[in-house]
Design a protein that fits this description.
By secondary structure, the protein is an alpha+beta fold. The chain has one domain (39-159): Nuclear Transport Factor 2, Chain: A, CATH 3.10.450.50. It contains four helices and seven strands; from the N terminus they run αααββαβββββ. It has helices at 4-21, 39-59, 63-68, 84-93, and strands at residues 69-77, 80-83, 96-112, 115-128, 131-132, 136-146, 149-159. Strands 1, 2, 3, 4, 5, 6 and 7 form a seven-stranded mixed β-sheet that branches. The longest helix has 21 residues, at 39-59. The termini are far apart.
Length: 161
């Protein structure tokens, strides 16, 4: 037994050193998450979208409305409350001629990291259905971030006095 003890100890030490020398195969790393947008970046994106919506209205290009309004978007104006589908249908028959507009004093207030309120005054020159548009309106839009993208969830306008 004494002759076998050094042999057994040698075998144990050899196995232990082999086990310690083996390295675990690292698992494939998941793709690193995209860095979150800073508030300044989000603010620029939101203002850019708001301007695209106004420009789409002026040029009768309603793709921005299909792209940037949430499916459950709510829009409030002098005609009442309208859904995204209501807005898109109205655009098909809307006879508007917008000569110019300007968005003034745009402010973005973040309600949390995925929601923001945009306020501004808009001046406009044009007609819709033969009626002159109000020269100026106070407007607000609520934006939400869904799936990493900023979308307009609501918009309202009040004629400025």
């Amino acid at each position: 037994m004494r002759k076998q003890l050094p042999l057994v100890l040698g075998l144990l030490l050899s196995c232990a050193s082999l086990a310690a020398a083996q390295q675990a195969t690292p698992a494939a790393s998941p793709a690193p998450p995209k860095p979150a947008m800073s508030r300044a970046q989000s603010q620029r994106v939101i203002i850019s979208i708001e301007k695209k919506l106004w420009e789409g209205w002026k040029t009768k290009d309603y793709k921005p409305f299909r792209t940037y309004l949430t499916n459950d978007s709510v829009n409030v104006g002098d005609q009442g409350v309208a859904s995204k589908n209501d807005i898109l249908k109205a655009f098909e028959s809307m006879n508007c001629d917008v000569k110019s507009y300007e968005l003034i004093d745009i402010k973005v207030v973040f309600l949390d990291s995925d929601a923001a309120l945009v306020t501004y005054k808009a001046t406009q020159d044009g007609t819709c259905g033969g009626d002159k548009l109000p020269a100026a309106v106070w407007a607000s839009s609520t934006y939400v971030r869904r799936g990493g993208k900023w979308l307009a969830a609501s918009h309202q306008e009040t004629t400025a006095k």
